[in-house]
């Protein structure tokens, strides 16, 4: 099952359902490089195991994932050259290249390509989400085939208002939120709740918080009863339909725009910071006002 530091893996029942849990509750399961590499390993291990039919992806603690880790001690050490805790992936896949090439290759491998790979996993996947699912947390949830949310869960992408960015690397937003709702949520940094996400068709089930884990496992067990070939071909039929509607090409194009956005900020900043700063009119993410639910009858 792997010896992991940042995630937990558990077999449920007879092994047909496997649970993978993000395990950094002290930082709201912010995604550092080590977590993402371990998650990829665990996902691929579940894919390789013919006993596994359904994978549940959840998060320890009250929050599924608050997005990318932007500054914890672990994250700084992982990215610091020569540090004993420097992550080995920081010197491969473009990690030793300079400028745009470094950033583009690193983000392609560890923020974009891995998410797309999980979306196409040859098993049915269910995201079990609670608390705040923000920015890169959306990427993890949206990579899954189904989403089960606890009551009170909120979904938002705040990188536009807090970083001056056009979204996260895996830009599935228009396909999940809808076109105009995506523009609204990105331009304001507001959130939608689990009930609205259910109405949009983004979320399959909304369960009481204290029943979320058991309810998700019951849902997974029901799906695991289905013949594996039927489940796989249903998933593939829907994914291929979405790809033929332009999903894959849209993701690729928006990843390029994301890199352009980074490059703009790096070009105008003396310190090469790759995101908008307060002097650019962007609220510092550490001092930003609280995320609120989008309202249909008020600007805020």
What would you note in describing this structure?
- The protein has 300 residues and is an alpha/beta fold.
- It has helices spanning 33-48, 73-79, 99-119, 136-142, 159-163, 173-177, 179-188, 194-200, 212-224, 228-244, 247-268; strands spanning 7-12, 17-22, 54-59, 124-129, 132-134, 146-150, 154-156, 192-193, 205-207.
- The strands form two sheets. A six-stranded mixed sheet has the order 1-2-3-4-6-9, with helices on both faces.
- Helix 1 runs parallel beside helix 3.
- The chain is globular and about 60 Å long.
- The protein starts with 6 loop residues before the first strand and ends in a 32-residue tail after the last helix.
- What is the distance, rounded to the nearest whole angstrom, between the alpha carbons of the first and last residues? 46 Å
Uncertain runs with pLDDT below 50, 5 residues or more?
A: none
Q: How much is the average pLDDT?
A: 97
Query: How can the largest sheet be summarized?
Result: 6 strands, mixed
- Proportion in helices: 40-55%
Provide a brief overview of the structure.
This protein is α/β, with parallel strands linked by helices and 300 residues long.
What does the secondary structure layout of this molecule look like, with pairings?
Layout: E1 7-12, E2 17-22, H1 33-48, E3 54-59, H2 73-79, H3 99-119, E4 124-129, E5 132-134, H4 136-142, E6 146-150, E7 154-156, H5 159-163, H6 173-177, H7 179-188, E8 192-193, H8 194-200, E9 205-207, H9 212-224, H10 228-244, H11 247-268
Helix pairs in contact: 1-3
